[in-house]
Each structure stands twice: as structure tokens, then as C-alpha cells.
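Risk register update: the risk of archive-format incompatibility is retired. Evidence:
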Amino acid sequence: MVTSVISASHLVSKPAQSGSEESIPQAEQEQEQSPENDSDATHTTICLTIFIFRGEPDMYFKRHVILYFTSPELPDFCETVHIQRVGETGPWMVDRARGAIDWALEANYCAHVNAGAVVVTRGEEMVPVAVTAGVPVQSRLNMSWNCQNFVLEGLQALVDEGFQTQEWYTAVEDELVERLMDGTVG
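Archived output:
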């Protein structure tokens, strides 16, 4: 068996532990294969969290979502990516914020999704941020397209760039949809 560390510039393969996997408890197997344990002096773990905020009225499609990037190895690495627009029909604009923000303290915060992590080569921590922020927003005239679509397209772009798997995307999307629906009116 081979476990993989996905990097912005290359795929690094590591041989699996010798011995039978069946003798290792499932929780330990998952811990050994988690991106956090693939980090070393040449790689950085980037954690992704999707924060969800109530809309007005509080319907699932009116809820605002943002993508927040942090790193356990780099405490000062905190990046936010989302989109917003002026009015209901103004053009969408990508907004990025640098620095630690406790989004859960915002008055309209309602939930979040821990979206796992990606592992990048040290020094390339901004690449996943740039990939998600690079989702095209110009000419998005479809009134049903919104910040939720932007975040999901950003996560899909991470898959397309080899940072994560399609299974990861599907699991995160399912949890996001569930959280968006929780407690909404109508």
C-alpha cells in the first residue's frame, strides 16, 4: 500500500508501514493516513473550514458561506475567501481577508463544516487559497448562482488540481448542504 501526499507542484509517495494493517486499530490507521501526519519540514498542512451565516430571510439559499484556511504548523497563516456583491443584481466580487478571525463570534453565524485538509510543499501555502479564489465570478448572471456555488466550485478546483479526491468533495458537499438546511424557514 502507498499513501500519498498531494503537493501543489508534485505528488510525493510514501511507503506504507510494514506489517499487517489488520493488526492496527481502525482509528490508528486513519490517524497514520491523515494529512496532519504527512506534514514534515518540507510540507505544510492547510485546514479548510466552511463557515455558514444566516441570511435574511433565513432560507437555505440566502445563507452566506465563506472558506477559511488555517495551518497547525503556521499559527499566523489565516486566510478567508468568499464572494459578495452590492445589491441583489450587482456583479460578484471575490473578497479575501488575511489574518485570524473568529467567525463563530459573528452575530449571524449559524454553523460550520470542517472540510478536512490539504498538504502543500512548504512555501506554497497560498496556492490552495489562490486556486479557490480563482473561481471565475465575472458574467455570473444566473440569479441562483451565489456564494455557496462559489465555495463548492472552489473545492472542486482543489480536486481538479490534485489537492484532494472526488470522494472528499462529495462528503464535504453533502455535509454543507445538510448544514445549510438546518433550521431554515420554509
